[in-house]
Structures are given as C-alpha cells and as structure tokens.
Amino acid sequence: MDLITPGTGLIFWQLFGFLGLLFILIKFAWKPMLAALDERESSIENALKAAETARNEMANLKTENEKLLAEARLERDNILKKAHEASLKMIEDAKLESGKAGAQMIANAKAVIETEKKAALTEVKNQVAILTLEVTEKLLRKTLSDDKAQKELVDQFIKEANIN
Amino acid sequence: MTRKLLFLSLLVSAFMLGFSSPTLAAGSEEDKTSFIMHHVVDSHEWHFATFGHTHVTLPLPVIIYSGDRGLEFFSSKDFQNHETHAFGKEYAHEGYFIDDHDHLGRVDGASFIEFSITKNVAMMFLVMIVVAYVSLSAASHYKKNGAVAPKGAASLIEPIVIFVRDEIAMKSIGPKYKKFVPYLITLFLFIWFGNLMGLMPGAANMTGNIAVTFVLAILTFILTNWNGNKDYWKHVFATPGVPIPMLLIMVPVEIIGLFTKPFALTVRLFVAITAGHIVLLGFIALGFIFESYTIGIVSTLMVTFINLIELLVATIQAYVFTLFSAMYIGSAVAEHEHVDHH
To answer: What is the DSSP letter of A4?
Structure first.
C-alpha cells in the first residue's frame, strides 16, 4: 500500500468508526461528565461566594458591634457625668438648705431667749417691787409703832409740804 | 521514576530489535531497510514477529465490493504463500490478488471498492475501544458519585477534558465553545491514544496514515463550514475593506484557503507521526546495516532517546491537531465587529 494515497477502506472505516465513537462518547461520556464538571464548578463557586458574603457580613457585624459599643460607652460616660453632677448639686443644695434651716433655728432660738429674758426680767422686777413693798411695809410698821415717831413724821411731811 | 522509565524504554527497544533481527540479519542492503516502509504503510495482514522462518502474523479480513459480484469476504491468508507469507499475483484467489506492494487487484482488471479490515483499521478499532473504555469508565464515576472529585479513570480523563475545554475550546472558539467541546475531546483522545499505542512494539502506524488524518481533518472542515456565520462567509466572498477589482484575486485565494486548512491538518499529523516511526526504525536498522555491535548499542540508546521524544511528539501533535481544529471553528463562529482594522 502507498504512503500518501489514502486507502478507500481505511477512509470508510475511519469515518464511520470515528463518528460512532463520537456518538457513543458524546452521549454516554462527555455529556454526563461535562455536566458533572459544570455542577461541581458552580457549587464551588457558590460556596466561595457564600464564604465571601459571610465574611462581609461578619465584617459588617463587627463594625456595627464596635459602633454600638462606642455608642454605649459614650452613653455610659454621659450618664455617669450627669449622675455626678446631680449628686454634686444635691450635696450643694443640701448644704444650702441645712445652712438656711440652722440660721432659722438660731434666729428662732434667739427670739425665744429674748422673750424669755424679758419675761424673766419683768418677773424679777415684779418680785423686787413686791419685796421692796413688803420690806417697806415691815419697816414702816416698826418705825411707826409709837406715837411720837408718828407725829414727828407728820410734822416732817407738813414742813416739806409747806416749803413746796 | 526517570531511571525506571529509561530502563523500560531500553527493554522495549531491545524487544523490538530482537523481533526484527532474524529477518534483518540476512538479506541484501535493501532488505535491511525495506521493513521501515513496510511498517509505516498499511497492510492486509498484521505482522508481529518472525522467528527464523516462522512468521507470527494476524490474518485480517479482506472485504471487496464490486458492481458485478457484490460484497465478498476473504481472509488475507487466501492471497499469500503459506510458508513465506509473501503476497503476489501468483497467489490469486477467486479472481483477486494482492501484489508484492500490498495492493489489492482484480485479475480481469474490472473495477471494485475495497473495505478491508487492514492493519490500520484493526489498530483504529483497538484505539477506539481503549478510548471508549477509559472515557466511559471515567464517566461512570460521575454517574455513580455525582459531581465529586475524580478517582481512577476519571482522574486521567478529567484533566484532559478540563484542559481541552478551558485551554483549547474556550480560548480559541470564544463564547460559543460549549457545542464543540465533546468533538474536540474525542479528537484529542483518539489522536493521543493512537499516537501512544502506535509507539508500542508490533503496533500499526495508524495516526501516521494519511487516510486517518484526512478523515479527521475533513470532519473539522465540515464542522467549521457548517457552523460558519455571516461574517465568515462574507470574509471569504467579499472581504471587507478590499476594493472590488482586488476581490477577483482575493476570492479565489480565500476559497483555496478554506481547503488548505484541512490539508495542513492532514499533512501535519501524518508527517509528524510517520517521520517519528521512520527515524525510530532507521536507528534500529543502523546496527544491522553496519553489522557492528558498537553501533547496535549506540543506536539502541538513540532509539530509547527518540522514543522519549516520540512520547512528547505524540502529545504535542494531539494537542496541535485539536488546537488548530478549535481555531478554525473559532474563526467560523466568531462575531466580528467590522470597524476596518484589517
């Protein structure tokens, strides 16, 4: 047989043999295989995409958490500051209030003391007056117990009265 | 691993030498090299080895169709001398004979068509069976297990399928690649397995036969032109940006271009594989031509070396044939944006 002249038999068998092989392999090998490969590739791609999304979500969540945390911290600081201010104000107020009340009480006490003092003085004056009167009475009674003395006194009074 | 491969290759070469030596050692200078052409071309019987005067051959069916006698079946044994296995006009059988150049002829000279299962046809069927077996067992893995990681035959075939799909079809054809992937994979595997199995001792030079490469090229040609879009045909018959008088020259050139593509495919694979076989056998023949052990040893080492290169060539040629097929198809289905940048 010749090197460069194609044989009719070989062309015939090669043509139909190859077409048969092509048909069988396309139907039973390449279609299921390519489909499986596509499926696997798409599943891998989906998995990668899902992982990417999850990672993004995680990152988002983290930043959100941090934001929340920062907000909470700020809030806490604010509250503490306000509480501190409030307590300070309350102490100040209390001090002011107690000072006022004390002053009031002192003033009241002073007034009461004054009144009591006045009352006591009046009482003392009255007692002194009564005592004086009683002493005077007793003295007068002693002095004027004889007539001579009574007469001298009357004369005395008359004299004085005449001069005036 | 490399050492083992070298050793194996040496063994194989020695094996080939052992088989060929008895016939080669005796005979004239021309006889010592004639086996090369005998191996490279097709044959009506499959000759494996000769021990002394015993020929180990596989007789093959001879199928003939003629207008007057219809379909006839013979065996190649019918047309040869049973002792020497030689063909010749003197061994004519039922009006047919095979001459000493392995040509089938009819005694009365009437016309006929031959559909014989020759050595290359038998080899082709063998390759197809191996390709089909490997591919189908690879596919069954996915049928059984679904879209999971490959195992067994699937791990051999899957990288090839992915390579052909992603590196050849996707890159050379473009967005419409999907339809052509099965054809390209089959093409690649058939040529690759054919090339590799052709390197085995006693095998036929099937992918180095012009009829085989011609049919494969014709299939690519049909697929290319069947799928040719408007742009593709417009490019052939009215190349954009070319003045009308120039078209008188351009159109015939473009039409010839359509046919040079399959011609190039046919010749490239045929030449690459046949040349490889001729070089291998030439080195084997050296030792017998010079009748020297030294040259025998050196040529055996060279045969080992060339065999390793042939393994590479087998793969490269399968890749190149598939790649060019994909590129031709790609040129036919591509959507051009004609903005006169020619």
So the answer is: S
